[in-house]
Design goal:
The complex is a heterodimer. Chain A has one domain (24-142): D-Maltodextrin-Binding Protein, domain 2 (3-Layer(aba) Sandwich), CATH 3.40.190.10. Chain A is built from five helices and six strands; from the N terminus they run H-E-E-H-E-H-H-E-H-E-E. Chain A has helices at 2-22, 40-47, 70-80, 84-96, 109-118; strands spanning 26-30, 37-38, 61-65, 104-106, 122-126, 137-142. In chain A, strands 2-6-1-5-3-4 form a six-stranded mixed beta sheet. By secondary structure, chain B is mainly β. In chain B, strand 9 (240-251) and strand 10 (256-267) form a beta hairpin. The longest helix of chain B has 25 residues, at 2-26. Chain B has one domain (37-61, 124-373): Porin (Beta Barrel), CATH 2.40.160. Chain B is built from four helices and 16 strands. Classes of the chains: A alpha/beta, B mainly beta. The A-B interface holds A 41-42, 44-45, 48, 50-53, 57, 59, 66, 77, 81-83, 85-86, 88-89, 92-93, 95-99, 101 and B 38, 40, 42, 68, 70, 72, 82, 84, 125, 127, 134, 143-144, 152-153, 156, 158-161, 191, 193, 195, 198-199, 201, 235, 238, 268, 270-271, 273, 303, 306, 308, 337, 340-341, 373.
């Protein structure tokens, strides 16, 4: 009995780790953004509205694809360290009190890339590892 | 017949505002102008049923509780103009913003009943904001009082888990207490946000504005004294938020002192969330005696997939010098994420205590709501 439980738990952990490996995504920005790499604390700081400007003074304009699948929601949590619903309530509070504008969210990658290519200071994450980037958009490494 | 004329006038005033807004939104503008103009808002439809005839609706009723539209126009890189319009209460429901049931003459009551059949349209906030720097800005105009966690979002139900915000502090007027603060202030506000490190930050808001009229915060002040107040907040990590708010002013022609302060704690290691607040308010009454009111609540929630079940317990003592006037609120409920920006909420409320000034003080309510953010 005990052996069966251990085998079952091992399979669960194995399955979970396989799921974790399957989460892929990338960070992109407008080409005028000076940063080439960001760590998890900086990313969280940006997407929670704490860090609002780049070192050169340009306003940060974060954006993301609305997470619709369980996989994309896990990637979202990896970036923001927040459950998506808690993230939405957090930003609704800032928005409806008139204090801040939340990160832009898009339903398609094309719309997101169009935004990132036109808005100076744009920094966006997408849960797709490989994609052709427009000329005005560059990839930013996640440390 | 006077009230009928007033009702018609108010109805057509509301209609004019709505049509003006629609016309404004419909005006074709350059795309560069549209980039500067943002429209957003929220709406909710509520159902509430009480088991106490004099403390709610025992028949149960649906209510278009809020339909709010906000606009933000970026005038230039440093100046923006913002307005928040609210359409409230389609069903007959007469109360002021602090939740106090209004006492009215017969004619006045008929008028309110007629007006509430149309609902009411009002400006919640309207102000101009000047950015002094990336971290500091000045706001001038009409604004919701920055007091505690919930006053600035007290109608914005997509911002919280429950159908309604904690009654113990924010709706004290409903249950035999006094309003702890004016809901709205017109004046000058300075706001600042400072990041200490990648994790830690602090912010503050300080303001001076018109004080509170003896009959409510939405009426012009009747003395020369100004309200002063502020809130300072500190977040040592992304998950912990501590703040304290304070205000002081004089109320009415009698210039009765009114001071309130509140401490707030939010701890939110995802998917767990806790909110707790303690508030105390001192106010001189008509005989210049000081009444001290105190209140606290605590709420815990846990987001599990699409559900966020929560529980809240709140306590109110309307007068520290009086015995047996305390009152408690227990709320158990959950929100359910139906789809993007749409949430279904349901909750059961238990109100108990002696502060309700009724023979049978205890009562229960069931409430449900659908909220949409757009």
């Amino acid at each position: 009995m005990w052996r069966s439980i251990k085998v079952f738990l091992s399979l669960v952990f194995l399955f979970q780790s396989l799921l974790c490996f399957s989460i892929e995504g990338m960070l992109v920005s407008n080409k005028d953004v000076s940063a080439t790499a960001l760590d998890s604390k900086e990313l969280q700081s940006i997407f929670m509205g704490k860090k609002t400007s780049w070192d050169n003074g340009v306003s940060i304009s974060p954006c993301y694809i609305t997470p619709t699948s369980a996989e994309s929601q896990r990637f979202f949590e990896d970036i923001t360290n927040k459950n998506y619903l808690i993230f939405k309530r957090y930003w609704n509070r800032k928005l409806f009190s008139g204090n801040d504008i939340p990160p832009r969210n898009f339903s398609t990658i094309e719309d997101l890339l169009d935004y990132a290519s036109h808005i100076k200071g744009a920094i966006c994450f997408i849960h797709t590892a490989e994609i052709q980037l427009p000329a005005n958009v560059k990839r930013v490494e996640m440390n | 017949m006077m009230w009928k004329c007033r009702v018609k006038r108010r109805f057509f005033n509301n209609l004019l505002v709505v049509l003006s807004l629609l016309a404004f939104l419909a005006i074709p503008v350059r795309s560069s102008d549209m980039d500067k103009f943002q429209v957003y808002g929220f709406a909710d439809i509520q159902y509430v049923r009480s088991d106490h005839e004099s403390m709610g609706d025992t028949n149960g009723s649906f209510d278009v509780s809020h339909f709010n539209v906000m606009t933000n126009y970026q005038v230039n890189s440093r100046v923006s103009a913002k307005i928040h319009l609210e359409y409230e209460r389609s069903s007959s429901h007469v109360e002021d913003h602090a939740g106090n049931e209004e006492e009215q003459g017969e004619g006045e009551h008929e008028e309110e009943e007629e007006i509430s059949a149309f609902g009411a349209l009002e400006v919640v906030w309207a102000y101009i904001e000047f950015d002094l720097s990336h971290s500091t800005r000045i706001r001038t105009g009409k604004n919701l009082t920055p007091f505690g966690i919930f006053n600035e979002i007290h109608d914005a139900s997509p911002s919280y888990n429950s159908v309604d915000i904690p009654s113990a502090i924010y709706r004290a007027g409903r249950v035999g207490g006094m309003s702890m603060f004016p809901e709205i202030i017109t004046g000058i506000f300075i706001l600042a946000d400072h990041q200490i490190s990648d994790n830690a930050s602090w912010n503050y808001v300080a303001y001076v504005g018109n004080g509170e009229h003896a009959e409510g915060s939405n009426i012009k002040d009747e003395n020369v004294n100004k309200i002063i107040g502020g809130r300072i907040a500190f977040s040592p990590t992304f998950d912990i938020h501590l703040s304290s708010s304070f205000l002081s002013h004089k109320v009415g022609e009698e210039e009765n002192n009114h001071e309130s302060w509140i401490v707030s704690l939010e701890y939110a290691p995802s998917p767990f969330e806790v909110h707790a607040e303690y508030a105390i308010s001192e106010r001189e009454n008509l005989t210049a005696a000081t009444v001290t009111e105190s209140s606290w609540y605590m709420e815990a929630a846990y987001t599990l997939h699409l559900f966020t079940p929560f529980m809240r317990y709140g306590w109110l003592d309307p007068d520290d010098d009086s015995d047996n006037d305390e009152w408690t609120e227990t709320v158990i409920g959950s929100s359910y994420h139906l789809m993007e920006n749409t949430v279904l909420k349901f909750e059961y409320r238990i109100y108990q205590g002696d502060g309700l000034e009724k023979d049978d003080n205890d009562y229960n309510e069931v409430a449900a709501a659908v909220t949409v953010a757009f």
